[in-house]
Amino acid sequence: MFSRGGSMLELRNVNKSFTVGARTLLNSNKLKVADNICLTLDQGMCLGLVGESGSGKSTLGKMVLGLEKPDEGEIWFEGKNLASMSRKERLAVRRKIQTVFQDCYSSLNPRWPIYESIREPLKNFEKLSAREEKRTIQELLISVGLSPDDMSKYPHQFSGGQLQRISIARAIALKPKLIVLDEAVSSLDVLIQHQILKLLEDLKEQYLLSYLFISHDLMAVRSISDQLAVMYKGQIVETISCKKPLSAMQHPVSKQLVASILPSHPRDRGKARITPSFDGTQELLLAANAN
Ligand SMILES: Nc1ncnc2c1ncn2[C@@H]1O[C@H](COP(=O)(O)OP(=O)(O)OP(=O)(O)O)[C@@H](O)[C@H]1O
Ligand SMILES: [Mg+2]
User: Fold this and answer.
1) Rounded CA gap, 95 and 97, in Å?
2) What is the reported pLDDT for 5?
3) Which residues, in sequence order, are CB contacts of 186 under 8 Å at separation 6+?
4) What does the pLDDT read at residue 106?
5) Which residues surround ligand 2, an ion (CB under 5 A)?
6) Is 184 helix (H, G, I), strand (E, B) or coil?
7) Residue nearest to atom 28 of ligand 1 (CA)
8) Beta-sheet pairing, 235-241 with 227-232
9) Which Pfam families match (predicted)?
10) CA 85 / ligand 2 centre spacing (Å)
11) What are the domain boundaries of the chain?
């Protein structure tokens, strides 16, 4: 099938830096946000990317979506190098890789009824009659657990969880192969998080999707992913199967992330361990304990 061993997505030695601070003639400060990243995501799988804030997760997601370009290295999708694709091939890939962001309020136009927001990708890529469009949108709303009647409502008439369902409906409208989910459940409360994660799992089976699931929330990532990659300062410091217990994680950064998970009952939170700091990560632990 694909020329490169069936991987849906492959990142090979991807490097990316941003210039930060004032740039002078003689020097400019570079912040390395992707440092020789090598990752593989097989078809139908979910790769979880976890790491502290600023570690480079979203930038990596943007490179997969073609919104940022790697300085060095290659990103292969369905056996083809994104950088050497023709315009036509790139356009085809744009519909095959979709995204769901954390901030559903800003990703939906507040002045548009939901119908228009879900219709947008269909309008751009499919040539459907008005009747077919309406039917497709109704089916999409049903598949994300909303009512077809919801299509005439406006974003402010929905809860955060419902808005995220609408963002997901829009992401699956073009029947993509891969969805980059960047902190897609992070702003939701725990119960709604569970519901959306369950919905994502069901849709993954139904539409044969692959996910790159990005979050700083180790438990959310682990609950949906097959493979987990831990990112720290632009590097993937550990990858591990989600079938393995958390205790199998070896890298100090991974251990810090595990240690920062709060016990589910407030009574037990005082007992949350603060393990020796790893290059500033203790702040993360203290912040977690303060919540
Ligand atoms: N366009 C840009 N120009 C300059 N610096 C940038 C740019 N985009 C991101 N950065 C910097 O790159 C680093 C990594 O950012 P990124 O958004 O990828 O982190 P993240 O792991 O997604 O963090 P978070 O968990 O907070 O979302 C940050 O220090 C950020 O300030
Ligand atoms: Mg981010």
Assistant:
1) 6
2) 43
3) 102, 215, 216, 217, 220
4) 73
5) 58
6) coil
7) 54
8) antiparallel
9) ABC_tran
10) 27
11) 7-20+29-259, 260-291
For residue 267, report the phi and psi dihedrals to the nearest 5 degrees.
Answer: -55, -35
List pLDDT tens digits, range 64-97: 999 999 999 999 999 999 999 999 999 999 999 9
The percentage of the chain sitting over the pLDDT mark of 90, rounded to a whole number, equals 74
Spatial separation of the C-alpha atoms in residues 68 and 75, rounded to whole Å: 12
Q: Is the pLDDT of residue 103 over 80?
A: no
Distance 234 CA to ligand 1 centre (A): 10
- Nearest-5° angle of CA 184, CA 256, CA 216? 10
CA of 135 to the centre of ligand 2 (A): 35
Task: Convert the pLDDT of each residue in 124-165 to its tens digit.
Answer: 888 899 999 999 999 999 999 999 999 999 999 999 999 999
**Could you tell me which CATH number the domain at 7-20+29-259 has?**
3.40.50.300
- CB of 53 sitting under 6 A from ligand 1: yes
pLDDT at 25: 65
Q: Is 63 in the pocket of ligand 1 (CB under 6 A)?
A: no
Q: What is the CA radius of gyration of the chain?
A: 20
